[in-house]
Design a protein that fits this description.
With about 160 residues, the protein is mainly beta. Strands 1, 2, 3, 4, 5, 6, 7, 8, 9, 10 and 11 form an 11-stranded antiparallel sheet that branches. It is elongated.
Length: about 160
């Protein structure tokens, strides 16, 4: 079952072509299939690492058929110089999108963003931050209701 969960998480959370080169490391205190919902459940200290990406959560549920993942209990995503955290995440694998909610914090060299909610699309490489957005870049602070940021070009589009 661990191999099935590892493969699904690799397909849903780490869709970049290069992600298949490294075998993922997946750990949690408990892993099981919930027969009433058909979801794989990872509980306690969820840790997923593949290549240069590390995802952590308090717990996660995985729907293999719908390629969906729900994580909560404080989630983090780290890759290269990017750090992302929030209270919970919902990943739509088929849409290549993750919705993060609650106390969003995004940071990378010289930039930090806080907001109530965020959506990240790994196909377009755009992150949309909404609700009480605070952008700190070098020595300046900007407050807006919504910001669209391209992670690759390191540029705000709105």
């Amino acid at each position: 079952m661990k191999r099935i969960v590892a493969l699904l998480l690799l397909l849903v959370l780490l869709p970049a072509a290069g992600a298949f080169a490294a075998k993922p490391v997946i750990r949690s205190d408990q892993q099981y299939l919930d027969p009433t919902t058909g979801l794989y459940v990872l509980k306690g200290n969820v840790y997923i690492e593949t290549g240069n990406r590390i995802i952590t959560a308090g717990e996660a549920r995985v729907d293999m058929a719908g390629m969906e993942v729900w994580g909560n209990g404080g989630i983090t995503l780290k890759q290269d110089d990017i750090n992302f955290s929030g209270d919970s995440v919902y990943v739509y694998g088929t849409k290549k999108q993750a919705d993060i909610s609650g106390k969003i914090r995004f940071s990378r060299n010289g930039l930090s963003i806080e907001s109530d909610e965020a959506t990240y699309n790994w196909k377009t490489k755009q992150a949309v931050f909404t609700g009480n957005v605070v952008i700190r870049r070098n020595d300046s602070v900007t407050r807006v209701d919504r910001a669209v940021y391209n992670v690759i070009s390191n540029v705000f589009l709105e």
